[in-house]
Amino acid sequence: MTNTAPSPELLARLVCPITKGPVRYDPASNSIISPQAGLAFPVHDGIPVMLPEQAATLED
């Protein structure tokens, strides 16, 4: 899998599937970050995997 960022158009439409709050892309971890939920959702080939069971817990 490549480390490809999601398109800006897609990022503008994404929300956290748990909190329905805003998310952001983190290029360092190639993840979609939900600060409210404290989760990082993986991105595979530019496609965010917004499944709670696939998310990693953010470290403080």
TrEMBL record:
<protein>
    <recommendedName>
        <fullName>UPF0434 protein AL01_06830</fullName>
    </recommendedName>
</protein>
<dbReference type="InterPro" id="IPR005651">
    <property type="entry name" value="Trm112-like"/>
</dbReference>
<dbReference type="GO" id="GO:0005829">
    <property type="term" value="C:cytosol"/>
</dbReference>
<comment type="similarity">
    <text>Belongs to the UPF0434 family.</text>
</comment>
<dbReference type="Pfam" id="PF03966">
    <property type="entry name" value="Trm112p"/>
</dbReference>
